[in-house]
């Protein structure tokens, strides 16, 4: 019998942890500019939210404000006492070397750190500098990308083989009648498919097609190649400004061949390090002078989007705040991000879109135009919603 078609209303389950508090890790070989990039990223407020006390959680973890013109506009309209933008939590992970999957270098701790994050900023070095040694002896971004992809895949293969082994051991005595046995057999079949994707198809897990049931199994394994990757190519300041580098077309081609659809963002750590210590006015002046702008805002936004994160706003004279949720979050769970009581005692949400507020100019005008909507529990939040929650006593 052909498989039943999925109901049109079935929502695609997302790869990864079902959480709003997701983290992105900075990954790469040693001496490619990871820590310098992290330092530039974590010291900057991207010119936004200047009155928000900057939070670095510990030396290798920082919360980076995500630039958003909508948030800035809402702050101009409401002139709140406090402004809290959306954040991306970023973690600097020690350099990976060839052989990490078998424990070489800091292999095991490196891979456990990658396992603990939800997405990856992969920093690739595409500049020559006699002062900065390369762990592999010379600069070759394609080889570096191969090393990282291979090490992450090898570790996934090891974990999947172990999981499959355990499942088969516990499934030896399976009869075929009970629901539990049937579920176990289905799980074994999915794990076998995962292994095939990694070994026979030579694909990263995130690049295969999975149905919702399979995604649940994939998510249970916390695989490294299931995590979204944004490739950040670290260029010399000169190459970044002139938008030319001999490696860029080859890197683009490598990504299109191996991981089609993954974003590629060229940037220059050298330029970012110079800009980050300047005042906003000096920075603007310098960017105009050299004819290039900082890429940190673009990188932060790309990382945030790669994790399927969106935001909604709460607005008033006391505070304008962006709340981070994952795509597909329903109203009660979105309210629960503020306080669990809002979710548990949820009554409804009064919701207007940012576009409507911008078009009509004030909440009163939005209401008069019939654009303020009362939404109940089934409502799925849309990026840019402005919400007022009503909860029972």
From TrEMBL:
HAMAP family referenced in this protein's UniProt entry, alphabetically: YchF_OLA1_ATPase
MF annotations from Gene Ontology: ATP binding; ATP hydrolysis activity; GTP binding; ribosomal large subunit binding
Predominant cellular place of this UniProt entry's protein: cytoplasm
Cellular compartments annotated: Cytoplasm
Residues binding ATP: 31-36, 235
Family: Belongs to the TRAFAC class OBG-HflX-like GTPase superfamily. OBG GTPase family. YchF/OLA1 subfamily.
Lineage, top ranks: Eukaryota, Fungi, Dikarya, Basidiomycota, Agaricomycotina
Annotated OBG-type G domain residues: 22-287
Keyword ATP-binding assigned: yes
Highest taxon in the source lineage: Eukaryota
Ranges in a coiled coil: none
Protein name: Obg-like ATPase 1
PANTHER family listed in its UniProt record: OBG GTPASE FAMILY, OBG-LIKE ATPASE 1
Keywords, alphabetical: ATP-binding, Cytoplasm, Hydrolase, Nucleotide-binding
GO cellular component terms given for this protein: cytoplasm
């Amino acid at each position: 019998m052909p498989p039943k078609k999925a109901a049109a209303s079935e929502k695609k389950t997302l790869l990864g942890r079902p959480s709003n508090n997701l983290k992105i890790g900075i990954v790469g070989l040693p001496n490619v500019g990871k820590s310098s990039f992290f330092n530039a990223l974590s010291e900057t407020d991207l010119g936004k939210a200047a009155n928000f006390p900057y939070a670095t959680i510990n030396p290798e973890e920082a919360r980076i404000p995500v630039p958003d013109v909508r948030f800035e506009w809402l702050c101009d309209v409401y002139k709140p006492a406090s402004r809290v933008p959306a954040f991306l939590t970023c973690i600097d992970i020690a350099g990976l070397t060839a052989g990490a999957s078998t424990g070489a270098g800091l292999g095991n701790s490196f891979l456990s750190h990658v396992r603990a994050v939800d997405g990856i900023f992969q920093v690739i070095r595409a500049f020559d500098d006699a002062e900065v040694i390369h762990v592999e002896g010379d600069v070759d971004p394609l080889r570096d990308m191969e090393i990282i992809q291979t090490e992450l895949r090898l570790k996934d293969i090891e974990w999947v083989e172990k999981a499959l082994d355990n499942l088969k051991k516990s499934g030896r005595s399976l009869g075929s009648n009970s629901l539990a046995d049937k579920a176990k057999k289905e799980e074994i079949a999915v794990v076998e498919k995962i292994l095939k994707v990694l070994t026979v198809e030579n694909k990263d897990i995130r690049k295969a097609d999975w149905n919702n049931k399979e995604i649940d199994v994939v998510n249970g394994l916390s695989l490294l190649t299931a995590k979204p990757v944004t490739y950040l190519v670290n260029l010399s300041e000169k190459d970044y400004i002139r938008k030319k580098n001999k490696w860029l077309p080859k890197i683009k081609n490598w990504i299109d061949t191996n991981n089609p659809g993954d974003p590629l963002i060229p940037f220059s750590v050298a330029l970012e390090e110079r800009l980050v210590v300047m005042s906003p006015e000096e920075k603007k002046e310098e960017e105009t002078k050299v004819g290039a702008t900082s890429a940190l805002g673009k990188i932060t936004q790309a990382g945030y989007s790669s994790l399927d994160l969106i935001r909604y706003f709460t607005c008033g004279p006391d505070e304008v705040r962006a709340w981070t949720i994952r795509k597909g979050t329903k109203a009660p769970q979105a309210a629960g991000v503020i306080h669990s009581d809002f979710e548990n005692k949820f009554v409804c949400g009064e919701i207007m879109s940012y576009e409507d507020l911008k078009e009509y100019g004030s909440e009163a005008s939005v209401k008069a135009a019939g654009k303020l909507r009362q939404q109940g529990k089934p409502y799925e939040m849309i990026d840019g919603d402005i919400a007022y929650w009503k909860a029972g006593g």
